[in-house]
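Limitations

Structures in this collection are predictions, not experimental determinations, and the ligand pose is part of the prediction. Treat each record accordingly. The example that follows, with magnesium ion as the small molecule, is included so readers can see exactly what is and is not provided: the inputs are given verbatim, and the output is the predicted complex.
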Amino acid sequence: MSEATLPTLSVVVPVYNEEAVLPLLVERLRPVLDGMHAGYEVVAVDDGSFDGTPRVLAGLARLWPQLRIVRLRRNSGHQAALAAGLYAAFGQYMVSLDADLQDPPEVIPQMLALARADGLDIVSGVRSDRTADTLFKRWTAGLYYHAMRRMVGRSVPAQAGDFRLLSRATVEALRALPEPAPVFRLLVPWIGFPSGEVSYVREQRAAGRTKYPLSKMVRLAADSVISFSAAPLRLATLLGLVGFVVCVLLVLSGLIAYISGTVVPGWTSLFLAILFIGATQLLCLGLVGEYVARIFAAVQGRPAYFVASDSAQRGYLSADDPGTPEDRAAEDRAPEDPRTHEDRMADQASG
Ligand code: UDP
Ligand code: MG
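Predicted complex:
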């Protein structure tokens, strides 16, 4: 694709089992993007959905030529889907947006205007009001951001999720890093390109249910801590030091008791000491294991996701790779558009 036909903006939307919310998203996103009078594409990354999402997306794309569908082979997680979309997008600027309308699309033009006016590479959406979230979510998120700011630095916005604008240069820089699917909300501030913020009010999920159960939240928090800090490993050293001091005191008191002839029957103290030492050793071993597991994964170098199909590259699948049944069903239902994605982009740029 030549420079002239590159869209100004790519909106990347990870989508996992969001059949209920997609029509609502298009209803709100499209007028905003059409009203910007700039070339754009919307990259919907279908993260291995198993509900009606592929069908709904194919139907929507028929009516909206700028909607591009990238389908992953299997569910790879929010951050991996985001990586897939960002690295496939053609835009000079890229905005990542959740599918559930918690991030209001109306803020996108403000982000682009700010980036252009101040020459910024990063514009983060910062939640000025989280009352739409549950108390539990707000509390855990508060704790998470506090910890992350201490570890990564003050450059991490206190309440920024994955609603942000990135310049192409930023995305290329992220892509050049060896992490296959980084925790974007930390790595983006970490690379430290010129950045700004736009505040917005976090809305309720428009339809469907959260795809972030507690287990995924814990995973994200663990990935965040471990990819940025060796502090948990030092916990073992700290516990060891404390244990040593306690041990010296106990040895002294034991000797004094022995010499003075007041030895007590020691079942409880022995029992507790053994349990305590066993538990802390296992805890520390587990922490070391978390790091070793990540080193192992990095050495294996397996990709975080596999792209099954990309509607911008029709014919991408080879003849002996017919895609998933859902892909084929979705393709069958969608009438063939003989124009390539480039043609459509060119039409849009000239129109
Ligand atoms: N998502 C995804 N893959 C997953 C989980 C979530 O692509 O494995 C998408 C989801 O469709 C949504 C976004 O990530 O567009 C954020 O998820 P969700 O709104 O469920 O998270 P929450 O707002 O509850 O934290
Ligand atoms: Mg959400």
